[in-house]
Amino acid sequence: MSAPHLAFGSGRLYGIPVFPAALITPVEFGFLQECSLDISHSIKELMAQFQYPVDVARGAGKITGKAKFAKISGNAYNSLFFGQTETTGQKNIVDGELHPIPATPFQVTITPPGSGTFLEDLGVVNAATGIPFTKVPSGTPTAGQYTVTGAVYLFSTADNSSGISVNIYYSYTVATGHNIAI
């Protein structure tokens, strides 16, 4: 016996590509949170020589829509709107990886998940207070500062002696998955 199909929220949104013609498979955008559709048009009046219009008709029209998603598919947007060729690999973000500031040399070397390659620094925050550290271009950082070279974050001796742990935010690339250039 199969489980019944359950519906929650506003539903799902599907699209059918029109270009290129070979890609006519319907694609699910994702799960909708909410959606709206607005239909409007202008009114045209034929005045002639009289004070009041002798005729009124609908003019140009416009249909617009908005949708908010709980889950969205990048492949759907690519196949429905952009039509770009996918390449292998993807860019991911680590949202606050926890690290204690170690003793000498007061540095943390990032090892991205999934054999990924470090791409760029997105900031450092004191894990206990939520106060962001200040990135300095080079040299020896002071308390509450850091430098980053490649995947190596360097902190001050003052932060280590205070026993501070930090959340490090960064992006990285992996060889799996797909991406498109828009």
Order of helices and strands: EEEHEEEEEEHE
Sheet bearing the most strands, described?
Answer: 4 strands, mixed
State Rg. Answer: 27 Å
Number of helices: 2
Average pLDDT works out at 83
Distance between the termini: 45 Å
Structural class: mainly beta
Tell me the helix content: under 10%
Please provide the count of β strands: 10
Strand order of the largest sheet: 5-9-8-7
Poorly predicted tracts of residues: none
β-strand amount: over 45%
Shape by Cα distribution: elongated
Throw out a few tags for this protein.
182 residues, 3-stranded antiparallel sheet, 4-stranded mixed sheet, mainly beta
Question: How is the secondary structure organized here?
Answer:
Layout: E1 11-15, E2 27-46, E3 55-72, H1 74-82, E4 87-100, E5 107-109, E6 117-126, E7 134-135, E8 145-149, E9 152-155, H2 157-161, E10 165-179
Parallel strand pairs: 7-8
Antiparallel strand pairs: 1-2, 2-3, 4-10, 5-9, 6-10, 8-9
Please, could you describe this protein's structure?
It is a single chain. With 182 residues, the protein is mainly beta. It has 2 helices and 10 strands, in the order βββαββββββαβ. The strands form 3 sheets. The chain has a 4-stranded mixed sheet.
Question: Could you write a compact summary of the structure shown?
Answer:
By secondary structure, this protein is mostly beta strands. It is built from two helices and ten strands.
